[in-house]
Amino acid sequence: MTDITESSFLHLDLPPAQLKNLQQLGYHHMTPIQEQALPIALGGHDLIAQAKTGSGKTAAFGLALLNRLQVSELSVQALVVCPTRELSNQVAEELRRLARFQANIKIVVVSGGVPMRPQVASLENGAHIVVGTPGRLNDHIDKGNLSLANINTLVLDEADRMLEMGFKEQMLELLKDAPHQRQTMLFSATFPDDIEYISRRFQKNPMQVTVEAHH
Ligand code: ADP
Ligand code: MG
Fold first, then answer.
1. What is the DSSP secondary structure assignment for residue 11, as one 8-state letter?
2. Which residues contact 66 (CB under 8 A, 6 or more apart)?
3. Which residues, judged by CB distance below 6 Å to any ligand atom, belong to the binding site of ligand 1?
4. What are the DEAD-box RNA helicase Q domain coordinates in residue numbering (predicted)?
5. Quick one: which atom of ligand 1 is closest to the CA of 31?
6. Is 128 or 214 the better-scoring residue by pLDDT?
7. Complete edge-to-edge strand list for the sheet that includes strand 47-50
8. Which domains are assigned to the chain?
9. Ligand nearest to the CA of 87
10. How far apart are CA 79 and CA 65, in angstroms?
């Protein structure tokens, strides 16, 4: 007997292999942010989401971008922008877990504070998903190591923290560089004016979700 509760991933339009993977990861129920954001994200809509650290944001955007990835086409199709190297690594780790069931998905991290050269080598080998910090991402774009031409999903993770760290101009550069035809998902714990501005300027009819802290 199967009991499909409201918050089960089984309600989502995901491939059986992914549902099995989630079960194996012990993800039996969606977190509140996943419950609200995933139907929107999987539907391809722009999203602005208020959610804190530890709420399960990565799967909220990760399942959507993984679901539309063309693995046979080795080009960068999704860009996830994070405030720090540590957060970039955490997001990449979680994306790799979520991508476990699907072989050969290449996820490359390019964050600041570490040498450029190994990152250049990784990018040259090809990537489907690039995760990184704003300054370093722009460095690679400027040097011709990274192209956003095939991006269909752009995620700004912890956007308010990126603003606090002085990354506003760098974020705007990335948003301008990416193809117009794309899904933009913006996650932030707070909504200062600059976030409202970025959303108004760069998102198309974004759907907003808010999750109350419940820890
Ligand atoms: P955030 O980015 O919001 O800080 P993460 O996406 O890193 O949060 O997720 C936090 C932790 O919760 C991770 O260890 C992740 O593996 C786990 N997690 C995420 N979603 C679920 C779920 N639906 N069920 C169980 N664990 C989950
Ligand atoms: Mg995170």
1. G
2. 18, 95, 98, 99, 102, 105
3. 26-27, 29-31, 34, 53-59, 90, 94
4. 7-35
5. 23
6. 128
7. 107-110, 129-132, 78-81, 153-156, 183-188, 47-50, 207-210
8. 36-210 (3.40.50.300)
9. 2
10. 9
Question: Is-contact 185 154, C-beta < 8 A?
Answer: yes
Residues lining ion ligand 2 (Cβ < 5 A) are 57
Give the Å distance between the CA of 2 and the centre of ligand 2.
Answer: 31
| Rounded-to-5 percentages of helix, strand, coil across the chain | 45, 15, 40
Residue 57 CA, closest ligand 1 atom number:
3
Share of the chain above pLDDT 90, in %: 92
Asked if residue 166 lies in contact with residue 83, where contact means CB atoms within 8 angstroms, the answer is no
Between the CA of 143 and the centroid of ligand 1 the distance, in Å, is 34
What token pair was written down for 58?
């990565």
Q: Which ligand 1 atom lies nearest to the CA of residue 62?
A: 6
For residue 154 the two structure tokens come to 């752009």
Task: State ipTM.
Answer: 0.98
Q: What is the pLDDT of residues 66-125, one digit of tens each?
A: 999 999 999 999 999 999 999 999 999 999 999 999 889 999 999 999 999 999 999 999
pLDDT number for residue 1: 45
